[in-house]
Amino acid sequence: MEKIEGKVMEALKHVMDPETGMSMVDMQLINKVEETDGLVNVEFIPSSPMCPIAFFLADEIKRAVLKVEGVKKARVTCKGHMMEEQINKTVNEE
Asked: Are 12 and 42 in contact (CB under 8 A)?
């Protein structure tokens, strides 16, 4: 049986950076995917510290992760962005 982390990485291959047309995975912007009891934590680094679409990408990552079978909850953490605190708080609000 494939681990949830592998399924999540497959799903994240469909999260595209609209400026480059490349996936977050292909751009190597997904730093970490960890799953414990259905909770998946994903850490990503935007392509620049001032990336204007970081909020959008964080939301798209979360949506993609939540569609994966076996995922009960998703937490997305943005690292290396000038507004990372606001992004992390907003995307993980319930």
From this structure: yes
